[in-house]
Amino acid sequence: MPASAPNHLDPRLLRAFVAVAEELHFTRAAARLYVAQQALSRDIRRLERELGADLFVRSTRRVALSADGERLLPYARRVLAAHDELLAAFGEARPLLVDLNSPGLATGRRVLHRARELAPECELMARFESGLTFAAGELIAGRLDASFGRFAGLDPALRAQLDQQPVRYEPMAVVLPEDHRLAELSEVPLAALAGETVYAGAGNPRTPEWTDLARQLFEGRGIGIAPPAPLAVGDEEFERIMAKMRNPILVVVDFPAMARTVLRPLVDPVPFSPVSLVWRRGLLHPGIDALRQAAAQLASEEGWLRRPVDGWVPATDVNIISTRK
User: Fold this and answer.
1) 8 Å CB contact between 262 and 176
2) What is the pLDDT of residues 35-57, one digit of tens each?
């Protein structure tokens, strides 16, 4: 190993190295860490790049530790043991603040509930901040610890300070007044919305990532975006304002029921909203590990990261959420 060692090593990279060193199999190590094999390989390559050493000897049939890998392994184990002791002493004393965006949305809530089951010793506290853009600022400032939403919709300067794990491609839907011309349909083809003006959070400073997703979805389809509405705080005020506007509302399929409206899935094509678990880069807390494990389990069990080949997701989102730094 070269004499000029880096000043800092991300514990996540060391944990990835130890898992591969003990399993000597990337697929088994990835399953053990609840990460994609591609992401694990990227972490190993990053660690090798930072250390300036090849840690494994790879062939088509087997993976073995190199001499430098053998040398690193006892050090990595000691560092991780000390890291775990530190978390046990201090990390669990502070509750982890998890933003679910809105009380009625299912994806984040289900991940949080599973994480509580996996780590009952951790205190995971729900918050409801309505919009990933706003939550991102709170994450960076340390006033929140984790959130859920469309990571690709954030400004690059925000993304650079955050980390993310893909959780779900969530099918999108539209909420219609119960007497709307399309309300009798069981599913609404996107083409049927031509000529409509749809509310997608325009003007809400907390949710520009959602309005941008709508703009990309509606482009070239003859669907307009409703102008900014008064910023409603709370479900009751949101329902009141939407009832006055009477515009269709772009939502996801698990959006909570609203009075005098119907929710209809969108089809032809089915549009998906990409949802990631997002946290402040460098944050170390056992609750984050539990959330990541819970998200990976549910994504696998529910098929949340599978999408039909004819579904719609912006290419920028696919590229960004599939790339772990």
Assistant:
1) yes
2) 788 889 999 999 999 999 999 99
Please give the model's pTM, rounded to 2 decimal places. Answer: 0.72
Q: 16 with 40: CB under 8 angstroms?
A: yes
Give CA–CA dist 91/87, Å, rounded.
4
Q: How many CB atoms lie within 10 A of CB 93?
A: 9
Looking up tokens 């190590």 gives 29
Rounded CA separation 29/35 (Å): 9
- Rounded distance, CA 192 to CA 232, Å? 28
Q: Given this model, what pLDDT does residue 237 score?
A: 81
Cβ atoms 55, 68 nearer than 8 A: yes
Each residue's pLDDT tens digit, 186-225: 999 999 999 999 999 877 888 999 999 999 999 999 999 9
Mean pLDDT of the 114-133 span: 91
Query: Could you tell me how far CA 252 lies from the centroid of its own chain?
Result: 15
**pLDDT(3) > 60:** no
Q: What is the dihedral of CA 46, 286, 162, 271, to 10 degrees?
A: 100
What DSSP assignment string belongs to 187-255?
SEEGGGGTT-EEB--TT-TT-HHHHHHHHHHHTTTT-EEPPP-----SHHHHHHHHHHH---EEEETTP
